[in-house]
């Protein structure tokens, strides 16, 4: 789990940082970096930053993952085939293959006027581990994690560029999403300043009972942590089994 500040608009420097960190910890199963780590949290002049999955930077990350046999999860600015720019999560397996690419579905603040919104919620298989991907504001929308939970993830992974004054929002949301779905959650946020925002860290591991197992605080930190994967949930507290959808459908839509 990497709680750091990327170099704004310097993709080469950020790719090199990935290489260094993975090289220092060869054999780690999955390395998780924050939202938009490869490009920085940028909201303007995106033409030269957004990249497709065939970009040189993506190829470099794939080589690094294969070299150190470590899967990569992290954020970048994606240029879609439709010409739109997406706030995306790249997932590369330990063999260097692209396992998944998730586009943030719920955009926060001015992001809605800058990025395209993703239209798909899908788990990603990384080796033997199935992850439920979320990006920042997605965690605050309970239905996102619930939709992923029905796909039987072993763990949720949420990457973020969460800023002041919203530390408490994500603290509550990350614990709630884990407990709601009895699924452990890895949350990796960044620190530092960029684009007029102060990012608040607070990366953590939350168990399937909603309890915090590891908390990074608000300073720069990189650490290897053991994460318990989802196991059979006792039926009394398996909320997915207790759902009664017939009760939830007939209410008016919010205005």
Core attributes:
single chain; 255 residues; alpha+beta; six-stranded mixed β-sheet; four-stranded mixed β-sheet; 5 helices; 14 strands
Structure, described:
The protein is α+β, with helices and mostly antiparallel strands and 255 residues long. It contains five helices and 14 strands. It has a six-stranded mixed sheet with strand order 6-7-8-9-12-13, with helices on one face. The protein has a four-stranded mixed sheet with strand order 2-3-4-5. Helix 1 (11-24) runs parallel beside helix 2 (56-68) and helix 3 (142-149) packs parallel to helix 4 (167-181). The longest helix is centred in the C-terminal third of the chain and has 15 residues, at 167-181. The N and C termini lie far apart (39 Å).
Short summary:
It is built from 5 helices and 14 strands. It is of the alpha+beta class and 255 residues long. Helix 3 (142-149) packs parallel to helix 4.
Strands, helices and their partners?
Layout: E1 2-3, H1 11-24, E2 30-32, H2 56-68, E3 71-79, E4 85-92, E5 98-103, E6 124-126, E7 129-135, H3 142-149, E8 155-160, H4 167-181, E9 185-189, E10 191-194, E11 197-200, E12 204-206, E13 212-215, E14 221-222, H5 239-242
Parallel strand pairs: 2-3, 7-8, 8-9
Antiparallel strand pairs: 1-14, 3-4, 4-5, 6-7, 9-12, 10-11, 12-13
Helix pairs in contact: 1-2, 3-4
């Amino acid at each position: 789990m990497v709680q750091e500040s990327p170099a704004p608009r310097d993709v080469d420097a950020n790719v090199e940082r990935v290489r260094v960190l993975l090289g220092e910890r060869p054999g780690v199963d999955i390395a998780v970096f924050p939202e938009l780590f490869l490009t920085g949290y940028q909201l303007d002049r995106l033409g030269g930053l957004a990249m497709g999955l065939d970009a040189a930077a993506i190829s470099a990350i794939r080589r690094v993952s294969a070299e150190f046999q470590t899967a990569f999860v992290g954020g970048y600015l994606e240029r879609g085939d439709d010409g739109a720019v997406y706030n995306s999560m790249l997932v590369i397996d330990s063999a260097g293959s692209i396992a998944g690419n998730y586009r943030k579905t719920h955009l926060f603040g001015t992001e809605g006027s800058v990025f395209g919104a993703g239209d798909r919620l899908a788990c990603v298989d990384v080796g033997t581990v199935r992850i439920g991907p979320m990006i920042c504001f997605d965690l605050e929308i309970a239905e996102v994690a619930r939709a992923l939970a029905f796909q039987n993830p072993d763990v949720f992974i949420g990457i973020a560029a969460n800023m002041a004054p919203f530390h408490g929002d994500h603290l509550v949301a990350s614990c709630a999403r884990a407990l709601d779905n009895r699924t452990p959650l890895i949350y990796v946020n960044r620190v530092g300043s960029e684009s007029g925002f102060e990012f608040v860290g607070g990366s953590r591991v939350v168990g399937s009972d909603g309890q915090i197992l590891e908390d990074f605080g608000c300073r720069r930190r990189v650490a290897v942590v053991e994460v318990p994967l989802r196991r059979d949930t006792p039926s009394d507290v398996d909320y997915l089994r207790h759902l009664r959808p017939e009760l939830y459908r007939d209410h008016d839509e919010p205005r």
